[in-house]
């Protein structure tokens, strides 16, 4: 005899012979005269079984023929038997609740604190939480920056609050410029920025005197004199002599501008970003300049790597379907790991993953999105190495 349990709950109508209701419906597959049950994927007549899975045998013990047992009901379980009914608890008095609480406390085994902590750590080990940054200013005001932030933002803000100038070094697309803007917002200061190149003249930093004798100020002068966070973007792309002119401004409390000496505002801070540590070109950043040691000495250095938690948040914020976002992230990160493993001079930044999500959201095909944001004309040999 082979019995396959059919119902997840006990019968609503008791056994017609003995009146027991602590029974379940099952199929007797040795009796194949009943129609096929799609839910259980078996064929066999309905019978009643005990809690332990054995066949209900009240008629067997009474000496009546087995074939005449009422549990061989061709109609099987009723509609009520199939319903999922949530039990409703009867109200319990406070005295009973207190007594139950004491009983449970007495019967519950004591669990070691370290064991609980280990279970909690294991449960959340694979959960990714977007980074949120909250800043408490000297006046007690608390500022929570909107949206997810890079996990290094807090370190940059702390260094700036301590009076340091900060050089952020990391691959392209890791959010260095955004960190500079958010740091200024957190400190309640205006944000200024200039993108440097080998052709950037010193006058763009210091301002200049017109032929008429009038001084034309620069953004750097504005931040230096009145306070603010000034961002030197692409600092390792500038000519070293241009950066050398601001050494005194960063290290001292005053600076000579074309029109006069200017005292540095107490709330002036400088932030710089670069793709290298100022030692010259690399395989990936072939056009970078070496930075004078005296200039580098003015900065505290923060390494800004790819923040995958932030990358997750930015990709999902594009509105693309979740399964496609996960596919993009898996694909881009595999390419990123391959590029690093093979020391390939390519950059696979979060801009690639976010860009792919935007293109897919706009209706582009997977192949065209990959070509536009990742491959970008790369030859077959290099691409096979990167994507292999």
UniProtKB/TrEMBL annotation:
InterPro entries: AAA+_ATPase, ATPase_dyneun-rel_AAA, CbbQ/NirQ/NorQ/GpvN, P-loop_NTPase. Pfam families: AAA_5. Residues 162-309 form the AAA+ ATPase domain. The lineage of its organism: Bacteria, Bacillati, Actinomycetota, Actinomycetes, Pseudonocardiales. It comes from the Bacteria. This is AAA family ATPase. Residues 57-85 are annotated as: Disordered. Residues 64-83 have a biased composition (Acidic residues).
């Amino acid at each position: 005899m082979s019995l396959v349990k059919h119902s997840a709950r006990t019968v609503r109508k008791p056994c017609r012979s003995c009146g027991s209701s602590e029974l379940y419906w099952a199929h007797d597959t040795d009796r194949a005269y009943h129609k096929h049950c799609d839910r259980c994927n078996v064929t066999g007549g309905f019978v009643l079984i005990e809690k332990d899975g054995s066949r209900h045998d009240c008629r067997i013990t009474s000496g009546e023929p087995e074939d005449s047992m009422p549990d061989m009901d061709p109609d099987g379980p009723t509609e009520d038997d199939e319903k999922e009914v949530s039990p409703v608890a009867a109200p319990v008095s406070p005295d009973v609740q207190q007594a139950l609480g004491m009983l449970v406390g007495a019967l519950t085994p004591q669990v070691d604190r370290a064991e609980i902590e280990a279970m909690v750590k294991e449960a959340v080990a694979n959960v990714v939480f977007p980074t949120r940054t909250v800043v408490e200013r000297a006046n007690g005001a608390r500022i929570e920056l909107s949206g997810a932030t890079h996990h290094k933002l807090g370190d940059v803000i702390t260094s700036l609050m301590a009076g340091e100038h900060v050089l952020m070094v990391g691959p392209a697309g890791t959010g260095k410029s955004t960190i500079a803007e958010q740091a200024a917002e957190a400190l309640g200061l205006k944000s200024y920025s200039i993108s440097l190149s080998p052709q950037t003249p010193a006058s763009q930093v210091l301002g200049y005197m017109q032929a008429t004798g009038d001084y034309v100020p620069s953004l750097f002068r504005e931040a230096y004199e009145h306070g603010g966070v000034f961002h030197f973007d692409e600092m390792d792309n500038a000519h070293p002599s241009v950066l050398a002119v601001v050494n005194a401004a960063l290290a001292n409390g005053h600076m000579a501008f074309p029109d006069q000496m200017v005292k540095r505002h107490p709330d002036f801070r400088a932030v710089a970003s670069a793709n290298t540590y100022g030692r010259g070109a690399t395989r990936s950043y072939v056009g970078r300049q070496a930075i004078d040691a005296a200039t580098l000495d003015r900065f505290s250095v923060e390494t800004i790597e790819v923040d995958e938690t932030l990358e997750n948040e930015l990709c999902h914020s594009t509105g693309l379907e979740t399964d496609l976002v996960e596919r993009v992230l898996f694909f881009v990160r595999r390419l990123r790991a391959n590029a690093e493993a093979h020391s390939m001079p390519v950059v696979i930044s979060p801009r690639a993953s976010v860009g792919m999500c935007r293109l897919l959201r706009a209706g582009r095909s997977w192949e065209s999105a990959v070509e536009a944001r990742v491959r970008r004309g790369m030859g077959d040999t290099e691409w096979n190495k990167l994507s292999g």
